Amino acid sequence: MSTSDVNTKKYKSLTEFFPFYLTEHSNAVNRALHFIGSSLAIGFIFAFISSGNWIALVLALFSGYLFAWIGHFFIEKNRPATFKYPFLSFISDWMMYGRMLVGKIPK
């Protein structure tokens, strides 16, 4: 499947979408950038919880998307699926992150 499939295929479930999501993250550098962005987002969320500083929450969103979009536009050279499937992409990102943490997907 290619990036153009994001625009043509209708994914109805996470089970159906996740394999496609992984194909859009086949480059190890792109996956590493996603991992870094997600890790920073978690750190900023904890900073927000401990300090109540709303800027940390903004930085959580910014860091997560910044690293992911750099990976897509400059490394993988594809369009993030989040533009068409925001919920499925968000959940899939955390599924990929969890699998990377336990070594089921190389960082």
UniProtKB/TrEMBL annotation:
Domain of life, per lineage: Bacteria
UniProt keyword annotations, A-Z: Membrane, Transmembrane, Transmembrane helix
InterPro entries according to UniProt: Mpo1-like
TM ranges: 32-49, 55-75
Parts forming coiled coils: none
Tagged with keyword Transmembrane helix: yes
PANTHER family: DUF962 DOMAIN-CONTAINING PROTEIN (PTHR34205:SF2), TRANSMEMBRANE PROTEIN (PTHR34205)
Name of the protein: DUF962 domain-containing protein
Organism listed in the record: Leptospira ilyithenensis
